[in-house]
Amino acid sequence: MNARKEVLNLKKLLHERIDVTTLPKSQLSYYIKSMQLDGQLYVSSMPLISYGRHILVTKKLQAEYKFISQFSRGLSKNVDWDIILKKYGLSEQQ
After folding, report:
1. Distance in angstroms (rounded) separating the CA atoms of residues 89 and 35
2. Could you read off the pLDDT of 7-50 as tens digits, one per residue?
3. Rounded CA gap, 62 and 56, in Å?
4. How far is CA 66 from the centre of its chain?
5. How many other β-carbons are positioned within 10 Å of the β-carbon of residue 19?
6. CB within 8 A of 48, min separation 6: which ones?
C-alpha cells in the first residue's frame, strides 16, 4: 500500500479531479478520522473484495490450534474486542 498515493487520491476525490477510488475499510476509517472527512464521501456498503482468514498450524500444535479456535469463536461476544473494533472503525454496528 502506498499511503501517500491514497491520501492524494482522497484529496483528488474531494476536489472532483477523480470520480472513484478504492481503499480497505480499516484504512478508510483512519483517513476519515485523521483528515476530518466524515460526511464528505459516499462509501459503498458493499465491499469490493471480501475474504476470510484461515488458521494454519503444524500437526504438532493441535493444543494451540484448539485454544485459538475456541478463543476466536468467542470474540463476537467479547466486550473488549468490540471496543477495539470500534476504536479502529471496524465494527459492523457503526
Report:
1. 14
2. 999 999 999 999 999 998 878 888 998 999 999 999 998 888 87
3. 10
4. 26
5. 7
6. 22
Contacts of 36 (CB under 8 A, 6+ apart): none
**Dihedral class, residue 36 (left if φ above 0, else alpha if ψ from -120 to 50, else beta):** left
**69's grid cell:** 479456535
Take residue 83 and report the three cell numbers written for it. 471496543
Mapping DSSP to helix (H, G, I), strand (E, B) and coil, where does residue 83 land? helix
Grouping H, G, I as helix, E, B as strand and the rest as coil, residue 57 is coil
Q: Are 90 and 27 contacting, i.e. CB atoms less than 8 angstroms apart?
A: no
pTM above 0.70, yes or no: no
Locus of grid cell 504438532: 60
User: Using CA atoms, how far apart are residues 21 and 5, in angstroms rounded to an integer?
Assistant: 11
